[in-house]
Amino acid sequence: MSPFTEELWKTVEDVYEAILEHPFLRELTTGELSMEAFKRYIIQDALYLSRFSRAVALVAVKAPSDEDALTLLKNAEGALSVERVSLHEFLMSEWGVTRQQLYENVMTPVNRAYTDFLIATAYEGSFQLGLAAVLPCFWVYLEVGRTLLRRGSPNKTYQRWIDTYASEEYAKAVEEVIRIMEGVSKGMSVGEKLEAKRLFRTSTIYEYLFWDEAYRMGGWPLPISRL
């Protein structure tokens, strides 16, 4: 019998291929991606991580053991700090965007829907199901980073983004989270495994939509606030 995490990944192979072929990532590697679209993506990603970290915390509270809870929190924090410190804070500084200016931005429809889905799943579901929902955020970026590293980018900013997710530090943290998922899957029923696959696939599709919305410069059709 194949490892459960291997089964999880097989359920999203088509989505992952679509992600790699998306013009956002293809143009990121050729250097043709507009900086405006990239900035919009980074700002939304920073807003996303603020809510994503809360979803991870909700999942960790339900861990079957203190060891799993601490390992999840430690490695999730490790992966997120790589993104925040090595990438987001550096780019925000380069662009002259303050933390206050960052949080003046409104979450886009996909960003809001994705994070609402993660928080609701983490709150309502079991540890195993919550973990299956948050796992793609870690795992998809690791695989994208590794693949894009082979392609490279002539744009130094885009290459820094690639290097962040292809780094050994990021990989170690993500692989620990995958290991936890594999470990807790041993006690899951057939029905729970099917639901975990559905959640894993849903989150992976949201990852695709996140890049797609940034590339299209998508947003709300009407102002969220008129204040």
UniProtKB/TrEMBL annotation:
InterPro entries linked: Haem_Oase-like_multi-hlx, Thiaminase-2/PQQC, Thiaminase_II, Thiamine_Salvage_TenA
GO molecular-function terms, A-Z: thiaminase activity
GO biological process terms held by the UniProt record: thiamine metabolic process
Entry coiled-coil feature ranges: none
Domain Thiaminase-2/PQQC intervals: 9-216
Gene Ontology CC entries for this record: cytosol
Pfam assignment, any one: TENA_THI-4
Protein name per its UniProtKB record: Thiaminase II
Organism name: Caldiarchaeum subterraneum
